[in-house]
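Same chain as my last thread, 256 residues:
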Amino acid sequence: MDDFSQAVERYSSLAEGLGASSTRSQLRLEVHVECLKDWSQVASLDQVKAWFLERRRACTMIVENIALPDCRGWTVDQTNGWIRHVGGQFFYVQGVRVSHSEFREAGKGWDQPILTQVGFDGGILGIIRKRINGIPHYLIEAKAEPGNYERVQLSPTIQATFSNLNQAHGGRKPYYAEYFLAPSELGALVHYDQWMSEDGGRLHLKRNRGMIIELPEDASIQVGENFFWMSMWQIKECLHENAWVSPHIRGIIAHL
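reply #2:
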C-alpha cells in the first residue's frame, strides 16, 4: 500500500504543477497509477483468469434458436406489426425508415427493424469500487447473457434494465442494486453518474446510466461466486483476451 500511495502522491505533485488539481484529475491520476502494475491484494491475474474460465465452464444456461412466434410472453401488435412483451415492459421490435442518408453507404436510405427500450432509458450499468489494504479494487461479475460470445463475459457489478430493477420479470432484484439506487444512504461516494449512449444502429434512442461508486474500505459486502474483486490493471489485461470484457465495462471506465 505504501508504494501505491507514494506513487499517487508523486503523480499528484506533478499534476498540481500543471494546474490539474480538480477531484476528477486526482481520480484519473490514481487510476493511472493503478494501471502501471498489478497492485491486487486479492489474487494474481492467473487466478482471476482461472476463476473466469471456471465460471464459463460452470454456466448451465442453454440458449436455443426458436421461431419468433414461439417466444413465450411476446406478441405481435396487430395495429403496426411491432413485437412487444405482453407486460408492456422491457423492449419492443419496431420498424424505421431512413431517408436523406447521402452521407452513409446506403445513400438512398433503407428500412430496418430496430429495438426500442420501453421509456428509452435502458437501466443502470454500475461498478462498485472499494479499497482493500488501501488499494482500489472493482467488483466485477462473470455474467451470462443469451447473446454473449461464449455465454459469459466480465461485466459490471450491476447490469440491469429498469424493468429488471422493478422486478417486472417476477424474479429477484439484481444483486447490489441498493448501492446504486441510494448510494449516499449507504455511505458510498459517487465518482461517476452519467447517461451513456448505446449502439444507434440497432437500438432506438436508447441510453444507459453509467455509474462508479466507492464504498468505504471498512464496509462489509458479501461477494458471491460469480463476482470477483479485480484491480484496474487486471481488467485492462483481460482486454487482451478474446471477447472476455463486456462493452459496458469499457464504456464505464473510459472516463477515468
